[in-house]
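Hi there,

I know you've been waiting on this one. I reran it after we fixed the sequence typo, so this is the corrected version. Both the input and the resulting structure follow.
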Amino acid sequence: MAMVNLKINNQPVQVESGSTILEAAQLAGVKIPTLCYLKKLNKTGACRVCLVEVKGVKNLAASCNYPVSEGMEVFTHSERALEGRRTSVELLMSNHNKNCLSCKRNQNCELQTLASELNIRENKFEGVHTKPTFDEVSTGIVRDTSKCILCGRCVSACKWYQGLGVLGFQGRGFETKIGPVFDKSFSEVNCMQCGQCINVCPVGALTEKENIHDVFMALNNPNKHVIVQTAPAVRASLGEEFGLPIGTRVTGKMVVALRRCGFNRVYDTNFGADLTIMEEGTEFIQRIQQKGTLPMLTSCSPGWIRYIEREYPDLLSHLSTCKSPHMMLGAILKSYYAKIKGIDPRNIYVVSIMPCTAKKDEIIRPENRVGDIQDVDSVLTTREAAKLIKMYGIDFNNLPDEEFDADMFGDYSGAGVIFGASGGVMEAALRTVKEVLENKPLENLDFVEVRGLQGIKEATLTVAGIEVNVAVASSMSMAKVLLEQIKNGTSKYHFIEIMGCPGGCINGGGQSIVSASIRNLPNFDYRTLRAQVLYDEDLDCDVRKSHENEQIKALYKNFLGEPCSHTSHELLHTSYSKKPRFTM
């Protein structure tokens, strides 16, 4: 690769040909602020915040998309560059709803941070604001265009991560805004509710629909027995909400904090993940043995379910009928647990803390109800859980570590933990399916072929003398490749794991928001650090296979009978149907 020599602030820098000024500055340790830019996703130069002065060039240059050249001299913090930057931010703020104190992104807003760094203290430009749209109709996402800065990051995320393009620019000039077609609600279009648009939004224009008040009211209702369960990926991200480094495992502190909030029981969704493996693994074995519909597709990701029901309804027979882990545990809590404890299921209030905004939609699906009972009553994202803990005045970082409640559903395997990373469901299933079919202990529990952040991963392994081809995909732009193969009859796979978010649940739409300044660091991916938390906890578990979880065995012995039994189908399985892509 050819190299280019240039100077940044009079310091010699050498970078690969084709690099931008911003990339060169990052390698040189020089910080240039950005707003619209996101590494590998968006570099339009539209916000004009990354302006720099290039010697001999008349106009200031947007460093995020301006290529370097031999002998170039760049000044990132000259008076002219700083003034241009200040003016860009002041113009953005002139059309911005500045209710910072009540905004969900207060103190975690990139525009607010920039204004502080550039010492902007006055409203230099004041005038009429663009007519806003406020949409809180959908189950998971709230849109407030009065805070939108038209950076386009959400548009790129929806297009490139999910291949949907639900969001786009509308109108011209001062009337420009971003939203679904015809300014419709997210509830009226083929939105997955995945929340990736929220994760890349630098301000408060896109946020999750909060259910904190509902949970708070339940906790203060003496007639409610309130149970909380936490998804595996939450422990890998929650600490970030309290200033801890990315990749800090906070399992024990999380348990203590929730217990001090007043929940009657604190359980781990990993138990539900082990239960899912028993059901889904058995379903896969039955499909193999009875020549059922293959490849079988996993069904744990509700965003992915919304996608296939709208975009590929002809392939619904390939989906596993299993509910997702937190829904399974919710169903067991309101049936078996309620019976053992002598509690009316209607008085049990189940809260799921999830890395996912689409889970808010999943819990109200009529297909997931058992009679007139809803498995889970409320979903809080990781961000909402942190707000609840802060509301109760808990000093999270100085908490001791405690274990989940041990009665009935306190045990979980390492296989359940890794559900939160892309490939984790597949690896957990393979540990059980291979060992059960071959009736002998596995020599190696780590199926590293399906780990990692690649868009599509595949492996071929021999299970009981049968060659089984498996694949893993995260994000719908990657899943579409595999779905088209199934549609065209060319798929070679027997079992496919699909997750709605790039990298899996560790990067879910409800996780802690990682600022662009961290996302844009060269040779860095925060998802790797979060995933490692789960793999480390897997290694620390005494039991690493779902079928060896003693409490899972007891549940089948005392209540369910066996995997995929009549009782388990009533409680733990669901159905799917074609849904309209748009609602007029």
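Quick highlight: Residues 106-208 form a domain with the Alpha-Beta Plaits fold (CATH 3.30.70.20).

Best,
R. S.
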